[in-house]
Write a structure and sequence with these properties.
The structure is a single chain. The protein is an alpha+beta fold. It has helices spanning 43-51, 93-103, 108-122, 137-149, 167-184, 195-201, 219-224, 229-234, 269-272; strands at residues 4-13, 17-27, 32-36, 58-63, 66-67, 78-81, 155-159, 187-192, 204-209, 212-217, 241-249, 253-256, 261-264, 279-284, 289-291, 302-313, 318-323, 328-333, 344-349, 355-358. The strands form four sheets. It has a six-stranded mixed beta sheet, sandwiched between helices. Strands 13-12-11-14-20 form a five-stranded antiparallel beta sheet. It is elongated and about 80 Å long. The two termini are 39 Å apart. The protein binds adenosine-5'-diphosphate and magnesium ion. Magnesium ion binds at residues 43-44.
Length: 365
């Protein structure tokens, strides 16, 4: 049983670099929590403060309801897996996995048992006598995870553990880490800059930028209800399209971006009424744009005639790169349209799925 709580935690390096800014996160026992955000946003620093590898400038960190600000790393009952694995090259896989337990003076029999158990979970028994240099990247990664498992820690911390693997292996390992979490039922805190990893692995996700936490939520809540333009653009691939324009009132509400004009469904009227004649950002995900054949049955389709600049056939769908004349945007279309590059094409925006953002604060309206 171990939750982890951060209360108003900040980290200031060299009296001026605010790496982590008043962060509040409450990680439940047995939860898989992902910290995600662009490089330099403070993810590793946050994780290292939880591990005790970095002093806290301000605030409190609790593990298992006890304040650990002054507790040295070795007494926090956590295990950390790093991006570069940090295996000892002169030791065998067995010795690498046993090392931490040996330091803690565990009996030989217990060490043997735990290493075998972990090796079985990770399917690396045949590798126990090898040296790290005789292992593939994926195998080294497993050994690094194994070294954490044998400790039976209250909390696992992962700092971009899959970044050094090729794309295919990364996808495979991410399911394995998810399975491991289901099997061990231990709290895990996982850092990545990859929103896809965050979405597929996290029970909940902390989205960070510039040392601030922008949103903490489940993957689907982040996707469908981003609190601001940053979260909206960061989560999802290809990213949400944004267009700046003006809200107009004229027999209903319209979003006018200069070249296209879209009728806004009633569900938004109340919130947007105070934005009439003002600039806002309109956001729409690529999959919420359809070819005009597909929506022939709609009474008032929000049509947007745009120049088709590039077509990427993905097999099951097409990525279309388009230009309204004022804004570029991407559409994911799965029906066969007449796709001629360099010609205008009529697409339909599913306005029920649109998002609007305040032009100044960039908060979702
Ligand atoms: P992330 O892991 O999200 O890429 P980090 O937590 O490593 O980001 O870094 C956050 C910010 O803190 C960055 O601006 C980085 O340059 C700065 N930083 C990290 N470690 C140190 C350090 N030891 N001294 C000074 N600045 C640091
Ligand atoms: Mg980092």
């Amino acid at each position: 049983m171990a939750g982890v709580k951060l209360e108003h935690v900040s980290k200031i390096f060299d009296k001026e670099v605010v790496a982590v800014n008043d962060v509040n996160i409450n990680i439940e026992d047995k939860e898989f929590m992902v910290l995600v955000g662009p490089s330099g946003c403070g993810k590793s620093t946050t994780l290292r403060m939880i591990a005790g590898l970095e002093d806290i400038s301000d605030g409190k960190i609790y593990i298992d309801e006890k304040i650990v600000n002054q507790v040295p790393p070795k007494d926090r009952d956590i295990a950390m897996v790093f991006q570069n694995y940090a295996l000892y090259p002169h030791m065998s896989v067995f010795q690498n996995m046993a090392f931490g337990l040996k330091l803690r003076k565990y009996p030989k029999k217990e060490i043997e048992k735990r290493v075998q158990e972990a090796a079985e979970i990770l399917e690396i028994q045949p590798l126990l006598n090898r040296k790290p240099k005789a292992l593939s990247g994926g195998q080294r990664q497993r050994v690094a995870v194994g070294r954490a498992i044998v400790r039976k820690p209250k909390v696992f911390l992962f700092d971009e553990p899959l970044s050094n693997l090729d794309a295919k292996l990364r996808v495979q390992m991410r399911t394995e880490i998810s399975k491991l979490h289901n099997r061990l039922e231990t709290t895990m805190i996982y850092v990545t800059h990859d929103q896809m990893e965050a979405m597929t692995m996290g029970n909940r996700i902390v989205v960070m930028k510039d040392g601030f936490v922008h949103q903490v939520d489940s993957p689907l809540n982040l996707y469908h209800g981003p609190v601001n333009k940053f979260v909206a653009g960061f989560i999802g691939s290809p990213s949400m399209n944004f267009m700046s324009g003006v809200i107009q009132k004229d027999n209903g509400l319209f979003f006018d971006e200069g070249n296209i004009r879209l009728q806004i469904p009633e569900q938004y009227h109340q919130k947007l009424s105070q934005y009439v004649d003002q600039k806002v950002y309109f956001g729409i995900r690529p999959e919420n744009i359809s070819g005009s054949k597909f929506v022939q049955h709609l009474q008032n389709p929000a049509k947007a005639k745009s120049m088709l600049e590039v077509v990427e056939p993905m097999g099951n769908e097409f990525f279309l790169y388009l230009n309204t004349g004022s804004h570029q945007f991407v559409a994911r279309i799965n029906e066969e349209e007449d796709l001629t590059v360099g010609k205008p094409i009529d697409l339909v925006f599913n306005m029920e799925k649109a998002h609007f953002f305040d032009a100044t604060t960039e908060d979702r309206i």
